[in-house]
């Protein structure tokens, strides 16, 4: 499947799921890793943050409420509307085109979104993220995985549009990330959801 078809299917799915996401409850482990990243942001006196794949905007709003100037982007126009409803500066944009924002940020936050990037395109997307980070900028990336695979997943109770899931083993993911960033913290843990993607990989990085 070509990248345009992959993106269109993601748009269809997340446009359909926007109301559900807007009313969902965040897992405790997601709150914990977000708090850990905020602690580092405060320690380093960072001021600006870009969230990519922002969804309904709850993480962006959290970082705003903790004093950061936040910009959010998402592929889904309905998710962007949810962000704007929360007074977030948000744009309909995918992470292949981040440089078109013509802005630099102290931090980038990407929670469970880069897993939708085909493996062949990961290097390009990481370059785009690098290009919008200020010197010594921080990058958080969290993805499900733990094994090497690339497959489509259909959640038919929401939409018949398939979503691409790219998963990486710990060694392979670190190898890819270290080509572009300095890894300063990497955790891998079981989130116990009872499905194949139970392993979550949490990486905090700095711009080289």
The low-pLDDT segments are: none
Output the radius of gyration: 16 Å
Percent helix range:
25-40%
CATH fold title: Rossmann fold
Return the structural class: alpha/beta
CATH hierarchy: architecture: 3-Layer(aba) Sandwich
Q: Please indicate the count of domains.
A: 1
Q: What best-fitting shape do the alpha-carbon axes yield? A: globular
Query: Looking at this structure, what is the CATH superfamily?
Result: Vaccinia Virus protein VP39
What's the overall average pLDDT, rounded?
Answer: 94
Terminus-to-terminus distance: 33 Å
CATH class: Alpha Beta
Biggest sheet, in brief? 7 strands, mixed
**How are the strands of the biggest sheet laid out side by side?**
3-2-1-4-5-9-8
Question: How many individual β-strands?
Answer: 9
Provide a count of the helices: 6
Strand content: 25-35%
The run of helices and strands is: HHEHEHEEHEEEHEE
Describe the structure.
Helices cover 34% and strands 31% of the residues. With 208 residues, the chain is of the alpha/beta class. It has a single domain (3-207), classed as Vaccinia Virus protein VP39 (Rossmann fold, 3-Layer(aba) Sandwich). Helix 1 (3-22) packs parallel to helix 4 (77-85). The mean pLDDT is 94.
Summary keywords:
208 residues; alpha/beta; Rossmann fold; 7-stranded mixed beta sheet; two-stranded antiparallel ribbon; 31% strand; globular
């Amino acid at each position: 499947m070509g990248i345009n078809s992959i993106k269109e299917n993601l748009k269809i799915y997340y446009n359909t799921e926007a109301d559900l996401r807007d009313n969902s409850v965040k897992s405790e482990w997601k709150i914990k890793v977000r708090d850990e990243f905020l602690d580092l942001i405060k320690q380093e006196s960072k001021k600006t943050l870009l969230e990519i794949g922002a969804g309904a905007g709850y993480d962006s709003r959290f970082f705003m409420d903790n004093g950061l100037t936040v910009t959010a982007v998402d592929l889904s126009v309905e998710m962007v509307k949810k962000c704007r409803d929360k007074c977030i500066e948000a744009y309909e944009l995918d992470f292949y085109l981040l440089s078109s924002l013509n802005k630099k940020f102290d931090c980038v936050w990407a929670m469970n979104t880069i897993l939708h990037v085909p493996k062949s395109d990961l290097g390009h997307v990481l370059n785009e993220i690098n290009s919008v980070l200020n010197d010594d900028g921080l990058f958080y990336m969290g993805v499900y995985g733990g094994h090497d695979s690339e497959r489509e997943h259909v959640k038919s109770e929401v939409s018949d549009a398939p979503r691409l899931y790219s998963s990486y083993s710990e060694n392979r993911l670190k190898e890819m990330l270290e080509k572009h960033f300095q890894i300063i913290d990497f955790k891998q843990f079981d989130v116990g959801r009872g499905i194949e993607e139970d392993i979550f990989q949490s990486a905090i990085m700095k711009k080289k």
